[in-house]
Amino acid sequence: MAAGAAKGGAAGGGGSDRSAGRIAEENRATRVLIVEDSPLHSRLARALLVNQPGEFFDFTWVQRLDEAIANVRETPYDVVLLDLNLADSVGLDTLTYFHAAAPELPIVVMTGQDDGQLGVRALRLGAQDFCVKGLRDGRTLARAIRYAIERNRTVQLLQVARERERYLATHDRLTQLPNRSLLLDRAAHALEVATRNGGGLAILFLDVDHFKNLNDSLGHATGDGILKLVGHTLRSCIRASDTSARVGGDEFAILLEGLEDGLDATRVAREISSRLSRPRVVNGRDVSVTASIGIAVFPRDGITAEALLQNADAAMYHLKQRGRDGYAFFSDEIDAQAKRHLELEGDLRTAVDRGQLVAHFQPQVDVTRNAIVGAEALARWNHSTLGWIGPDEFVPLAERRGLIIPLGEHILRLACEATRQWPSRLRVAVNVAARQLSHGNFVETVARVLQATELPYERLELEITERSLMADRKNGVAALRALREQGVRVAIDDFGTGYSCLGALKELPVDVIKIDQSFVKSLLSDRRDAAIVETMLKLARDLDLDIVAEGVETPAQRDHLLDLGCHQMQGYLFGRPLHAAAFRRRFAGDRTARAAGPAASRLDRDRSR
Ligand code: C2E
Ligand code: CA
Ligand code: CA
Questions:
Q1: Residue among 405, 407, 431 to mutate when testing ligand 1 (max atoms within 8 A of CB)
Q2: pTM to 2 decimal places
Q3: How many Å apart are CA 339 and CA 343, to the nearest integer?
Q4: Ligand 1 contacts CB of residue 390 (under 6 A)
Q5: Among 365, 378, 437, which residue has the most ligand 1 atoms within 8 Å of its CB, making it the best to mutate?
């Protein structure tokens, strides 16, 4: 074609006149590229459009596909009028090639007189509209152009919206990191590659230590700042080909690919720990963050993305239980424990309904009067295949899986039912978890259970650890205050092991403090602990609080505590926890209750559980 890339004039063939003619005051002219090998048809199209009232066009005319493609790369057009039969390309291929070269440009295909079918197929291949060549109606052509541009704009906007949606569905808004689903996706892909080509792969699971405390004490803005800081740190510790993700509130995960061995993962974990712990200013506050990191390595610790993530999580959880900060690999021991927990977790949901969760009762005695004053209810799980399971194992599971509220209510009910059968001067102490206390309905739950079991408020004592009370101090204190006004007694459990807020004790609604077993254990050997116990006892007397020493196992401990002025005790020396019927027979039958005093000090180890 001799005409080459001629600029099309309004009427002339080829040449370089820009016949947009009138320039709109506000709207600039619509830039139209005409791809048409016939000078006649090109001229005709321009002639039809130029005379449209209120529309302004700026034409460029080319005759070949390769010229058209070269042209759109240089110049921004608003629309293309595309003839499909050119010297260098024929039929729908012309459209396909052109659309691939300029996917964002709206195209109006020019077809022959009776090519309706072709037009429809052109729409499917990405054209916005089609017009019959040789048309004598300028308005129709102008409208086709306008609609093509509008339709194309809508499609582009939709595409942007869809991309944004895809981003939001796969990323965390706060840290801008990939989320769990994108991480798993990438891990699955990486696993395919690693399986095919060899090469190591590991998933790290990171949990910020004490994040809840940081968040509560420093405020949510600073908490968010800390999470962003962690995200930023993770990104800076890995290569661009690795993935860091936020997979939960304060939980992050990292996918490391192309590892030589487990040592590489260790190096990354160390680097993260060391960078995180550098003191930093976040939101105007000095913070330094530590984290616990669990590591699972392919294929030793799992061959699917989910298994690796879960096992890295288990390794992290295990590390948390033995003091935090640092990193740990998933191991057989952790694996076994995680499997057991998984099984227990599944069973725990139905254990309450099946009556497998029971309360055992351990006597609390007043040693000076040689009398039982009450009992602590301790939860036990009689598992159908695994046997008896202690609360140290299943209470944390219940807390983690949101089952502690029904479980706590169940134990409370059992405890009140049992206590109702005892002589009226005996009361029962029931352990309460933090989650129960901050749950809105706790006060009503207690009231409901007491009413149903016909136990007076005065015979119930609630044991709360300092830690639990501090976890949600505002709601916790309010709930306890309301219950205490009704007559319920409140005990601070494991006193001395938590925040030891001796000062705060004055402001808390408390009747009793329970000296933690660890102090009792070292009372005779550790003078510092002995001094602490003395201080606690003095404090309790000053504040007019009762005090109970826990875990008393030997007569020597009992005598020493008595010397210090502590009268109420609990421990194996006086009795192990017993199931309800055994407890009643032994300590709370009408006859034995009265006789319990003299018997109490002689009640040594009772092994029947
Ligand atoms: P805790 O409240 O400090 O309960 C005392 C624990 O010490 C009990 O362990 C008890 O069996 C044990 N113990 C009692 N006397 C002695 C002694 O002389 N020597 C020694 N070495 N241990 C003694 P258990 O029953 O395994 O309970 C462990 C923890 O589980 C409890 O600690 C309590 O925090 C929690 N727990 C128990 N029942 C419940 C419950 O119904 N709800 C909630 N939320 N937590 C519970
Ligand atoms: Ca307790
Ligand atoms: Ca305790």
A1: 431
A2: 0.60
A3: 6
A4: yes
A5: 378
Sheet holding 107-111, edge to edge: 57-62, 30-35, 79-83, 107-111, 129-132
Q: Is the dihedral of CA 493, 499, 503, 504 positive or negative?
A: negative
**Gap between the Cα atoms of 155 and 104, Å rounded:** 9
Convert the pLDDT of each residue in 460-511 to its tens digit.
999 999 888 887 888 899 999 999 999 999 999 988 876 556 667 778 899 9
Count CA atoms closer than 13 A to 185's CA, side-chain side.
9
Question: What is the distance between the alpha carbons of residues 107 and 145, in angstroms, rounded to a whole number?
Answer: 8
At position 261, the amino acid (one-letter code) is D
Whole-number Å distance, alpha carbon 364 to ligand 2 midpoint, is 11
- Dump pLDDT digits (tens) for 412-422: 999 999 999 99
E strand or H helix at 533, and its extent? helix 527-542
Query: Which of 361, 371, 437 shows the shortest CA–CA distance to 399?
Result: 437
Residue type, 546: D
Question: Treating both helix axes as pointing N-terminal to C-terminal, what angle do 442-453 and 473-486 enclose, rounded to 10 degrees?
Answer: 30
CA of 368 to the centre of ligand 3 (A): 22
> How distant, in Å, are the alpha carbons of 176, 178, 544 from that of 246?
9, 6, 49
Q: Does the Cβ of 391 fall within 6 Å of ligand 1?
A: yes
